[in-house]
Amino acid sequence: MTNQETQITRSKWRLPFGFFAGPVLWGLQIIIGYGLVTVSCSIGNKWPVYVTSGLSALIVLIAALVALGAWRSVADASIWMETNESQDATRFLIVSGFLVSLLFFLLILATFVAAFFLSPCPLITMPLP
After folding, report:
1. pTM over 0.85
2. Residue 87, exposed/middle/buried by CB under 10 A (0-12, 13-18, 19+)?
3. Is residue 37 a contact partner of residue 52, using CB atoms and an 8 Å limit?
4. Which of 26, 47, 63, 116 is deepest in the core (most CB within 10 A)?
5. Three-state DSSP class for residue 62
6. Taking Cα atoms as reference points, which of 97, 107, 94 lies closest to residue 19?
7. Which pLDDT tens digit goes with each residue over 25-80?
8. pLDDT tens column, 76-127
9. Are residues 37 and 119 in contact, defined by beta-carbon separation less than 8 angstroms?
10. CA 20 to CA 89: how far, in whole Å?
């Protein structure tokens, strides 16, 4: 077993964490964010929504960095393969985990920007003056 295979085998948790952290946290951020909208409306402050989005974005960014570290631990660090080279599932998980984490980081960031500029309370639920 080569040093590269030993390094990847020793830290197998990095592969699923880098691949699944983004989608799972984005889903949780959306579900928890919908629940926190009522809390934000009742207290008149958007901080619970901001904290949820910020924590989700931070963890997904850490997942992207973990996947990037796993990618760099691969010897040639290239996503391009020669035509005679076999397709390796580990390399696929490393590269796709990094790309999926970046995609979902951008989605969480877009949700945060929308929450920043839009009011969490719909006009129909606001009290009349």
Report:
1. no
2. exposed
3. no
4. 63
5. helix
6. 97
7. 999 998 998 888 888 888 878 888 889 999 999 999 999 888 888 877 765 555 56
8. 555 565 555 555 677 778 888 889 999 999 999 998 898 888 877 766 655 6
9. no
10. 16
- Sequence-separated (6 or more) residues with CB below 8 Å from residue 116: 46, 50
Number of neighbouring beta carbons within 10 Å of residue 31: 11
Structure tokens at 125: 């639920």
SS (H, E, C) 66-116: HHHHHHHHCCCCCCCCCCCCCCCHHHHHHHHHHHHHHHHHHHHHHHHHHHH
